[in-house]
Design brief:
Strand order of the largest sheet: 2-3-4-5-6
Helix content: 40-55%
CATH class of the largest domain: Alpha Beta
Order of helices and strands: HEHEHHEHEHEHEHEHEHHHH
Strand content: 5-15%
Number of strands: 8
Distance between the termini: 20 Å
CATH topology of the largest domain: TIM Barrel
CATH architecture of the largest domain: Alpha-Beta Barrel
Number of domains: 2
Shape: globular
Amino acid sequence: MLYSNITPEAKRRTLRAALASGRLQQFPGAFNPLSARLIEDKGFDGVYISGAVIAADLGLPDIGLTTLTEVTQRAGQIARMTDLPAIVDADTGFGEPMNVARTVQELENAGLAGCHIEDQVNPKRCGHLDGKNVVDLDTAVQRIRAAADARRDPDFLVMARTDLRGTDTLAATQDRCRALVEAGADAIFPEAMRDLDEFRAVRAAVDVPILANMTEFGKSELFTVEQLQDAGATMVIYPVTLLRSAMGAAERTLDSIRAHGTQEHGVADMQTRRRLYDLVDYEGYTRFDSSVFDFEVPGSPRRPGDADQAAR
């Protein structure tokens, strides 16, 4: 009821153990707290919180317009609603190395299990678009060193994302990954890898967990869990998949209402009231205080003792 009973520290330890397990960890992207509950309910390993999704939720493009306050607040709202560890996209750290340090501590306070800091020039852009610019190696290293030094919980995962492959060679990307690990990165996020061999090259360069980004309409093919694990990836994210699915369904429903004058044609594909109440644990609140929930959900079977409960 209310929020997760598992502490942020315990979630971070869970994440660390999972990354060391040898099994590829799947982290779908949550676009709100309820979708994080759904991800947990479906048996996934963790929750990913995309900067692009947070920006889109505010009606903004993913070009570095969101603030640390906005990202921390939304990420914390999502992380606290699930027992799973949640990692968040912290863009370029929202400023200079001192800002990066504050970013990490704010995310720790918000209950996140980890974050990734990227090496793009700010304002950044989506990692799967052309025309990206990355900072020099010294600046990239300073960001990661500041993040690693600032954390107070040693289990908080500091991941370094590099977009260098979009502007330079694979060998240069390998060299940067090594430098970022030496600076304190616990994991590497090589953005916009073009094929499985490029993931293998990153795996050959570093001995830390590697994240694969399986975003739709991007530079990478949508590889399977088996393909990615064979290529040396440790974690896979599906950052915008649920938002795109939800918005696609919403658009189709709106079109249907305009065309038919009713939503009736789309009802069969909607989440039912019963299922929504199950995800938000409506009946758990009933048990805590029957005054919160004192009516029968349509279509829900009555159980022995319901009448007695309602009378209390």
